[in-house]
Amino acid sequence: MTSWNQLSTVDFVASVALSKDDVVDVKRKPNATIEKLPDKVLLNIFSYLTHREICRMARVCRKWRLIAYDTRLWKSVSLRPEISGLHVGSLEALLALISIRFGPSLRYIELPIELITHTVLHELSNKCPNLTHMLLDFSTAMQLHDFSEMQAFPTKLKYMVICLSEVIFMEGFMRKIYNFINGLEILHLIGTYEKVEEEEEEIYEVINVHKLKGATPNLRVINLYGINFIDDSHIDAFSSNCIQLECLAVNFCNKVTGSTLKTLFQRSRRLKCLLMNQTSLISEHVMAVEWEKVSLQELDISATDLSTECLVDMLTRIPNLRFLSAGQLNGFNDTVLKSWMEMGNPRNLIALDLEASDNLSDDALYKFLSRHGQQLSGLVLSGMPHITDQLWMSVMPILNNARILVMGTPERLGVNIHVDQLMDGIANNLPRLERLELRWDPQNLRFSDKSQKAIDILRVKCLKLRCLVLNDGRYYEIVKANFERADRNTVVRTSTSSRVSNYYLLGNYKDLVFN
After folding, report:
1. SS3 for 58?
2. What are the F-box domain coordinates in residue numbering (predicted)?
3. What is the rounded CA–CA span in Å between residue 310 and residue 129?
4. Which of 263, 312, 327, 459 could cysteine-pair with 355, CB 3.0–4.6 Å?
5. Residue-range definition of the domain harbouring residue 63
């Protein structure tokens, strides 16, 4: 049996969960231990733990076991062990969990392919009436279970993620659930873009989008991520039936050319967010859209090879753009930025991403930021070797409302970046900063023996800073150690495991997140 004195995780969380008065009161009582806490306080402490940790806590004593099995701690459950979820050894064990531990409290569940059976889905629909969010992971499937006898499925789902397989056709399963999912508001279909090998293989349409759209008329958010068979006809299909559509994301669907965009906006009058990163947009199709009539506020056209003419035409006609991601575009140059300022309406812009826009000069960027920098909450100017700390220092006083900044390039530069001066400028000008990423090569960062003072000022003045990403190196170790001494252990991260993006500022960001 584990001693409660050894449970450092619980001790740490207890200090978070208890109020200051409670902590003081405990310190005054020499015999006070965590065992003396009321059940409701222990329950609150346990709520900060992962389910793996909760299961370990259940082995401490009978009292903790009862608290660990409280259904209120099991509202959101992942059963995918490869993504920090619980491992369930058998279907029988899962069925027991659903009945005993999950019950009416369950709101969200993630299931891997081996646990997606008609028996499990029937039990979820029967024992978990408040289940509204579900993820079904078929991505590693080589064969589906038999769903011919499936007669029940959760009926209150508002959010569903389906991770597709490259080779398994889903129609046998989908046909069984069409009658149960007409209340869906958020749908994620996740493809195999990140798993595709360079060799060309035959592409299969493993899910029938044209039938699926008929069963989901209430969708507000559609995310089709990295699906190799998705093309413009599938966008047209969804737009023909989903009049509530607010957000459409087709990132990394390289068969999308934009030929149905005009129809999409004519049908989906509420569409405010369109994300088309790394698609195959054709400039002529994009220019055919009646941009001056759209309600669009958020747009991602990164890495799409649109022409300069197309970019000028589009940006000068969209009336109310708040979010623009247009990185990795050779056509985005000084002419585009100048035309947008003079003939367009960037006055409502709060987020701008121009990553790797090598044809933009620092002079054009300075003029744009001088006029509109104060309104920006997010700015990404990374991947451009000619944009150094000098430009950032000159515009820093203007960017006083920024919450997200990404700067620097991993390429080795011929000049050095004076990072102490940069940190000092950030600390003194950006009190609202929440996320910061410096992508410069560690060999280009120059700092002195007094760099701790600049880091201290940053840490003390930017109290909202929750994420600071740096390339692994000596400066990263110095900054990380500084923040850890102040008990801010999760702030400093390496670029190998974290990346900062303006996507946090999207209106539907929480709906677009999938695991």
Report:
1. coil
2. 31-77
3. 50
4. 327
5. 36-73
Q: What token pair was written down for 483?
A: 């923040």
**Which parts of 216-307 fold into alpha helices (H)?**
232-241, 261-267, 283-287
Q: Is residue 240 part of a domain?
A: no
Query: Helix or strand or coil: residue 281?
Result: coil
Contact 279, 260 (CB under 8 A): no
For the chain, what is the domain count? 2
* Of 223, 284, 231, 270, residue with least CA distance to 251: 223
| CATH number for position 483 | 3.80.10
Question: Tens of pLDDT along 437-482?
Answer: 999 999 999 998 888 999 999 999 999 999 999 999 999 999 999 9
Report the C-alpha gap between 430 and 437 in whole angstroms: 14
Rounded-to-integer distance, Cα 434 and Cα 419, Å: 18
Tokens for 494, please give them. Answer: 């390496």
Distances (CA, A) of 36 to 8, 31, 126, 210, 466: 17, 9, 38, 59, 34
CA distance 119 to 95: 8
Q: Is 329 exposed, middle or buried (0-12, 13-18, 19+ CB in 10 A)?
A: buried
3-state secondary structure of 351: strand
What's the one-letter identity of residue 172?
G
Type of residue at 126: N
In a domain, 376, yes or no: yes
CB 235 within 8 A of CB 264: yes
State residue 503's pLDDT score.
97
Are 188 and 158 within 8 A, CB to CB? Answer: no
Distances (CA, A) of 250 to 140, 194, 383, 415: 22, 14, 24, 39
Nearest of 265, 297, 260, 315 to residue 282 by alpha carbon:
260
Looking at residue 62, which CATH number applies to its domain?
1.20.1280.50
The whole-number pLDDT of residue 53 equals 87
**In-domain check, residue 14:** no
Name the domain boundary from 49, 73, 97.
Answer: 73
Residues composing the chain: 515
Q: Is residue 254 part of a domain?
A: no
What average pLDDT does the structure give for the chain? 90
> Do the Cβ atoms of 190 and 513 come closer than 8 Å?
no
Q: Which of 20, 54, 73 is the last residue of a domain?
A: 73
Band of pLDDT at residue 177, cut at 50, 70 and 90? very high
- Angle 400-402-406 from CA coordinates, rounded to 5°: 125
Q: Which residues pair with 479 in a beta bridge?
A: none
**40, two tokens:** 């409701």
For 408-423, letters b (16+ CB in 10 Å) and e give: bbeeeeeeebbbbbbb
User: Where is 224: in which H helix or E strand?
Assistant: strand 221-225
In this structure, how many other beta carbons lie within 10 angstroms of the beta carbon of residue 250?
26
User: Is 243:249 a contact under the CB 8 Å cutoff?
Assistant: no
DSSP state of 449: T
